[in-house]
């Protein structure tokens, strides 16, 4: 049996961290759903940048949007919403079958708004309304300014994928924002069942310290941080506060492992997938990692609910003069800046493709 099926049977959802029009048009996404146990999909500015830049599949749609008077960011979101809603429709049967636990797709607000609470909330409401799909998460970064927007979006009934989380503390802050939104809905007499996941990025930890730690510690930091975060997740799920809102009809915010593609060519191609196998969580993985996982036929042990030996491992990094807390803040800041860079590049691609299409139309 494929390891993808084993992971699904364990109770962890496998989501694809990619979307392109070619994936949709060729039936590849359907193949992943039918054969590789994929039950959801995530996107981000970098993914869309690569998708549009490296394919001619969007040219006709760009031409149509230009004719309708759209350009720049407005044009991009029309393209993105088309892709995302098509993907959402493919996952809708899974969403219905699991009563809304699974079958989600994610679309991110503009990363230019990562430090603008009001504009983030406004765009989240706009995108969700325009998509018109119940199984769409709006991705909002778990930055200091993003947390109030997350709370308000949940209170407004907008499902949220909290992105750019790197540590236990950042995860807990995001979980608190989710909880406040749900509790406010209960107090207001509203249905508290609003979907959410909290996305914790893994591999970037190891990439950040690869040249700063001994060989014996390479590729261990991301997993240790994940184990510490998983312990906090399980503790929160068991707390009276969480159980009260669940009893009122809310659904738990699931923990999602992001950035799970192996960066080190010397390490296993499914390093983070095997290490982070755990029920009632999500692993969103790049296509290469998904395909690699499908070639395996075993997984290994389940993630320990008590965090296992994570504190011992993290103590070794502390002795190697790695400040975990400072690095978490740095990684979140760098992640936000990276998405801004990808966004700017994406807008450049939209502009250059638009100019080429308009030039061709003039010549014709």
In short:
The chain is of the alpha/beta class and 364 residues long. It is built from 16 helices and eight strands. The chain has helices at residues 3-10, 21-25, 28-35, 45-53, 59-67, 72-97, 117-131, 146-155, 168-187, 203-209, 221-237, 240-247, 271-275, 287-294, 310-319, 324-363, and strands spanning 12-16, 38-41, 105-108, 136-141, 160-165, 196-201, 254-258, 281-285.
Describe this structure in words.
The protein is an alpha/beta fold. Helix content is 56%, strand content 11%. It is built from 16 helices and eight strands. It has helices at 3-10, 21-25, 28-35, 45-53, 59-67, 72-97, 117-131, 146-155, 168-187, 203-209, 221-237, 240-247, 271-275, 287-294, 310-319, 324-363; strands spanning 12-16, 38-41, 105-108, 136-141, 160-165, 196-201, 254-258, 281-285. Helix 4 runs parallel beside helix 16 (324-363) and helix 11 (221-237) packs across helix 15. The longest helix has 40 residues, at 324-363. The termini are far apart. The model has no long low-confidence stretch (mean pLDDT 95).
């Amino acid at each position: 049996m494929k390891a993808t099926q084993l992971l699904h049977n364990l109770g962890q959802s496998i989501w694809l961290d990619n979307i392109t029009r070619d994936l949709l048009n060729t039936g590849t996404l359907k193949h992943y759903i039918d054969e590789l146990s994929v039950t959801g999909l995530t996107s981000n500015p970098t993914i869309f940048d690569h998708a549009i830049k490296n394919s001619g599949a969007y040219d006709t749609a760009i031409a149509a949007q230009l004719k309708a008077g759209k350009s720049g960011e407005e044009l991009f979101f029309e393209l993105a919403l088309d892709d995302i809603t098509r993907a959402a429709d493919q996952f809708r049967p899974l969403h219905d079958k699991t009563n809304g636990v699974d079958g989600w797709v994610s679309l991110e607000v503009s990363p230019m708004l990562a430090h603008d609470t009001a504009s983030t909330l406004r765009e989240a409401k706009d995108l969700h309304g325009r998509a018109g799909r119940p199984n769409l998460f709006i991705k909002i970064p778990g930055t200091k300014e993003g947390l109030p927007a997350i709370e308000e979006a949940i209170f407004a009934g907008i499902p949220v994928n909290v992105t750019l989380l790197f540590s236990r503390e950042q995860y807990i802050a995001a979980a608190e924002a989710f909880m406040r939104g749900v509790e406010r809905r209960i107090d207001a007499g509203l249905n508290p069942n609003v979907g959410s996941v909290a996305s914790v990025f893994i591999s970037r930890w190891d990439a950040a310290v690869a040249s700063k730690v001994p060989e014996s510690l390479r590729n261990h930091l991301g997993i240790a941080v994940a184990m510490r975060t998983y312990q906090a997740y399980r503790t929160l799920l068991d707390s009276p506060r969480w159980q009260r809102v669940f009893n009122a009809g809310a659904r738990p915010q699931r923990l999602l492992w992001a950035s799970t593609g192996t960066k080190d060519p010397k390490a296993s191609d499914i390093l983070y997938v095997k290490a982070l196998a755990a029920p009632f969580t999500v692993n969103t993985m790049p296509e290469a990692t998904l395909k690699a996982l499908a070639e395996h036929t075993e997984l290994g042990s389940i993630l320990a609910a008590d965090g296992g030996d994570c504190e011992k491992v993290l103590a070794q990094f502390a002795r190697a003069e790695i400040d975990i807390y400072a690095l978490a803040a740095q990684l979140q800041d760098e992640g936000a800046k990276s998405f801004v860079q990808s966004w700017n590049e994406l807008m450049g691609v939209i502009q250059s493709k638009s100019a080429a299409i308009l030039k061709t139309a003039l010549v014709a």
